[in-house]
Amino acid sequence: MIPVRWLTAFLDLPPQLHGAGSRFWSEVTGYAVSPARGDEAEFTTLLPPSGDPFVKVQRTVAVPRPDGSSPDRPSIHLDVHVPTADDIAPAAETAVSLGGRVVHRSPHGYVVLRSPGGFTFCLVHERLRERPLPSRWSDDGVHESLLDQVCLDIPADLFETECTFWAQLTGWELRTSGAHPELAHLTRPDGIPLRLLLQRLGDGLDGVVTAHLDLASSDRAAETRRHERLGAVALQVHPAVGWTVLADPTGARYCITDRDPRTGLVP
């Protein structure tokens, strides 16, 4: 296992979708967009009003991605934070020993890897400690919401391998759902801003592991209406299981769930 201190969700957006995606997720979360940085001004951070940031945006270039996905479509990758910069190299060795593969070693110090199922993640170091509180909304009844989960969408034949890899990599307890055997999650330590959910896709859906974002909300219907006013489209409503599937203005799917925004758990 590696000592995970923080998780950051990275929205990878091609140039033609970058503006719309950045605006939407800034408005949905209530977080300001930082000044751009990077050699090509390709990186921005969504800055919560309190607490440390855990969502970033990257304007991608039109070259094939390490995970095999199209460079013209939005995608998600994870930054896994370790305690110090000196921990990055041994953490990468641990990931490789568990079945991961190094894709790139950056001169800036971070390492890009793929999980056994092809999901891209980076090992990084930043001093981030304070998990932000949920945002409070009052335009359609008072409720709270928080982007708080990355769901890995895993082809069926890779599901057990990915579950084992992420549990062993993080050292977090893997818990399966009795009601929904296609779902498992890792029990995050206190203070980590993002949960990791692992979802087994239906038979016949192959390829590499991808990911989508999930929000927890105290009023899913009101939160859905708020997102629709910002440009999202509701695709599927699942009242029995407590989530709604939407597409953002870039076409990327994500979910609003009935989980408690403060604990991340089903009430």
Automatic annotation (TrEMBL):
Source organism, top-level taxon: Bacteria
Record InterPro entries: Glyas_Bleomycin-R_OHBP_Dase (IPR029068), Glyoxalase_6 (IPR041581)
Domain Glyoxalase-like residues, every copy: 19-124, 149-257
PANTHER family: CONSERVED PROTEIN, HYPOTHETICAL FUSION PROTEIN
Name of this chain's protein: Glyoxalase-like domain-containing protein
Naturally occurring in which organism (per UniProt): Humibacillus xanthopallidus
Lineage of origin: Bacteria, Bacillati, Actinomycetota, Actinomycetes, Micrococcales
